[in-house]
Amino acid sequence: MATPQFLSSFKYSDSLTVVAISICTAVVCEAISWILIYRTNSYKSLKSSIDKASKKLETMKTETIKVTTKKSKTRKIDRVETSLKESSRDLSLFKFKSGAVVALVLFIVFGLLNSLFEGKVVAKLPFKPIGIVMKMSHRGLQGDDATDCSMAFLYFLCSISIRTNLQKFLGFSPPRGAAGAGLFPMPDPKTN
């Protein structure tokens, strides 16, 4: 029982607990994504087709810049762009199924953390945040000290940064050509 007393007497124990839980949650979420998505053959084939199409599009565009533009070249570029958009959309739909499971895990962990740290200051910000950020960072806390940070804000920041970096480290980040595409891609200026 000496260990819990030691941790509770440590100055930053609450903030370190939130960060540690955030790291564990990110690892669990990536494991779920690996089981449901990343290890499947359909994901691997979609990812490779997106990589090939984005490389091909990149080379075609650099060649088009060097040489005068021809209608046949622009049609080929449009065809490759369309193929890339379709593959990216399919990849996003494919990832959607694990998104529901990951959201459920995050919802449960957030609820647990919220009950553990309700109304408790877990960190001090080194600055006074602006309006909307202060509403998020001071959510559920009593008092007027704007530098007080709630669990929700710290967990939110940690979750975003840790999971994104973990995906990059494990090689699960989206392919280059799929970065801007998704379920709701930007409208094509050529068709408008």
TrEMBL record:
Keyword Ion transport: yes
GO biological process: endoplasmic reticulum calcium ion homeostasis; intracellular calcium ion homeostasis
One GO MF term attached to the UniProt entry: calcium channel activity
Topology class, membrane: Multi-pass membrane protein
Presence of the UniProt keyword Zinc in the record: no
Location within or outside the cell: Endoplasmic reticulum membrane
Family of this protein: Belongs to the TMCO1 family.
Function recorded in the entry: Calcium-selective channel required to prevent calcium stores from overfilling.
Protein name, as recorded: Calcium load-activated calcium channel
Annotated organism of origin: Manihot esculenta (Cassava)
